Amino acid sequence: MGSEAMDTEEKEGPSMMEQLVPEITTHALSYLDFTSLCRLSMTNSAMRRAANDDGPWKALYHKDFTVEQRSLNPINGWKAYYAATRAIINTNAEFYNIIRERDLPLMGRFWLNADYVKCTHASGELFSGYNAVMDSWGLAFNWGQGEEQGVDFQIQEVRARLVSDMAWLTFKAFCDNVDSGPFHVTNVYEWHNERWFMVHHHSSPMLLNHENHQFHL
Q1: Which DSSP helix (H) or strand (E) runs through 160?
Q2: What are the start-end ranges of the E strands in 29-117?
Q3: Which residues pair with 198 in a beta bridge?
Q4: Half-sphere exposure of 160 (CA within 13 A, CB side)
Q5: How far apart are CA 150 and CA 100, in angstroms?
Q6: Residue 167 vs residues 84, 87, 164, 188: alpha-carbon distances, Å
Q7: What count of other Cβ atoms lies within 10 Å of the Cβ of residue 24?
Q8: Burial of 185 (C-beta count, 10 Å sphere; 0-12/13-18/19+)
């Protein structure tokens, strides 16, 4: 009986998924989400190779983030680039959690302590250098201090770009509980000591209802 079982195991061929030509496998995997693709990579060696291929991760990146970077060829592959993009977007979301909680010490740790960091608030005021930037956030958090929480933002149309140890994000920010906004925002981060630090924040009001403005350079 034991030898028959061994013979049966030896005769078992590859699964139907493993028999597909690579192009079809890549196309099929392109429909999976992040969690499903990660789980598939832990099933067996063949599926791990297929799930770690650039094709599915490039498709997932374009589906979850943007199609604006079709010509991009990430040095470490699309899986690593997807993971890095996901991480910086989560870091950027933490920035708005800090604003909502009015947590100045945490905001201080969020920014890189350097003289070249810059922050332009929606009022148009520019603050340069770490100390000036932190003072500006202190004033912002003290405004409306009687309220239980700070301003709550909804972030939409996030676009992220990563090059080496720098990342920048552009997006629209909508205020839930104040009569202002929405805003166009650009945030820039640098990678130091195994984590992202903010080095630049620029927020400016969006023009709504086809407002007619003349701009002069």
Answers
A1: strand 153-163
A2: none
A3: 111, 189
A4: 23
A5: 4
A6: 10, 11, 8, 6
A7: 11
A8: buried
Q: Which two tokens stand for residue 77?
A: 């592959």
Please give the pLDDT value at position 45. Answer: 76
At 45, list the tokens. Answer: 């060696």
Distance, in Å, from the CA atom of 138 to the CA atom of 207, rounded to the nearest integer, reads 28
pLDDT given at position 148: 57
The alpha carbon of 91 is separated from its chain's Cα centroid by a whole number of angstroms, namely 7
Whether omega for the bond prior to residue 182 falls within 30 degrees of 0, making it cis, is: yes
Among residues 162, 164, 156, the alpha carbon closest in space to that of 185 is found at 156
**Contact, 32 vs 39, CB < 8 A?**
no
**Residue 184 tokens, joined:** 């166009």
Q: Report how far residue 183's alpha carbon sits from residue 193's, in angstroms, rounded to the nearest whole number.
A: 31
10-residue mean pLDDT series, the chain (217 residues): 49 54 66 77 75 83 82 87 94 95 96 98 95 96 67 88 94 77 92 97 82 46
Which residues touch 182 (CB under 8 Å, ≥6 apart)?
172, 173, 174, 175, 205, 206, 208
Structure confidence at residue 203 (pLDDT): 95
pTM score: 0.77
Question: By three-state DSSP, how is residue 55 classified?
Answer: helix
User: CB atoms < 10 A from the CB of 7, how many?
Assistant: 9
